[in-house]
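Question thread 4412

I'm putting together a teaching handout and wanted feedback from people who do this every day. The idea is simple: show students a protein as raw sequence, then show them the structure tokens that encode its fold, then repeat with a second protein so they can compare. Below is the first pair exactly as I plan to print it.
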Amino acid sequence: VDIPRSTLIDWCGQATAALQPLAERIRAEVFRTDRLHVDDTPVRVLDPKVRQTRGKERGVKEGRIWTYVRDDRPWNGPDPPVVAYFFSPDRKGEHPRAHLEGFTGILQADAYSGFAKLYEALPGMTPRIREAACRVGGVVTDPAPHRPGRADFPHPVPRARASLTARRSGGRSWGVGGDVARAWRGSATRTACCAARAA
């Protein structure tokens, strides 16, 4: 059956409009938390105006899918994991800033410079969003909830930065002693497997 492109586009538009209330409800549920994980993933987007550049195909540009995950299972949270996706035509930092405009809490993200303004505070005030370290390096096969389609895996390395600090200070965990320090170091090292590889 040969279906005209205009008909297919119209059907996609109608499906998008029908699903919009559900998408908004999911997004509201994700941003209801005070702990979020975020990452962006490149996606090829058709655009006939784009000429071939830097080895990329003509008529194709690189957009982004921004993935926001609420997953409190590692902390025995009562809410089920949920993921919200946003599309943007580029990777500018203005996109996550717009997505997170009403969010207050802890944000676990990679070191992308576009996130930096999210962690800034006005003079004399505490930041609205606090940064949590994300795993460093990593292997493609390692579970990662912030990648599309992989949200049911446990969250990686919530304490990568703390683990790196402990490793760089000769394994000392300042302020605690004995069994507590050894237990913490063992736990932090296990949970920060990728951070340990990068150290």
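The second pair follows. I'd like the answer to focus on this one:
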Amino acid sequence: MPHNNESTYPHPAFMEGEGSITGQLCPPLRSLSPPFSPRQTNDLQLVREALRSLRNSFSGHDPQHHTIDSLEQGISSLMERLHRMEMQKRQERRVRGKSPAPHVTNEYRDAWPSNSKLPHSHSTPAMSSSACTKVLYFTDRSLTPFMVNIPKRLGEVTLGDFKAAIDREGTHRYHFKALDPEFGTVKEEVFHDDDIIPGWEGKIVAWVEEDHGEN
């Protein structure tokens, strides 16, 4: 004699940790999902309760249970996909936040003399790898520095190249900002036209002073 009382039991698909009606395992919505935020967890709980209520409206062998199983799996898959997309976006934002772009700015932040007041457009020095070297120089008669470009790489520019670039009449003395291993930042005077001018953080910083003819 067949048993007719199995329809009075809750459907296995909404029992904790049990399977579906067709003999294939159908884990509950909670077990299909990765760890979510508290808000997402509450949403999943509401969906699970709604599905349980819907299952109770059908008999134990009603084919609509299969439709509910498919709906449950589809919702779980969608929630998992949305969760992964959200986590990926957060990781990309963290990577962009750790970008090394400010490194160039920090590398040259101390390149300018402390008493100079330059326009913002002059605040980014040329890189030493450039075929053209930027030269910033001060004179006795002006508080505002002048700037020229010499078509040579830093480390190849001589005092003669600098004199030709600024084209100043008269006799002058030439000092250049340099880094001394013992004393740190110094003004180094260069005398001979063939001498290589020292650089400072990718450029040349110079002071041109009139020589009043001391013998």
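Top answer:
Good format. For the second protein you could add a caption like this: The radius of gyration is 39 Å. Residues 5-97 form one domain.
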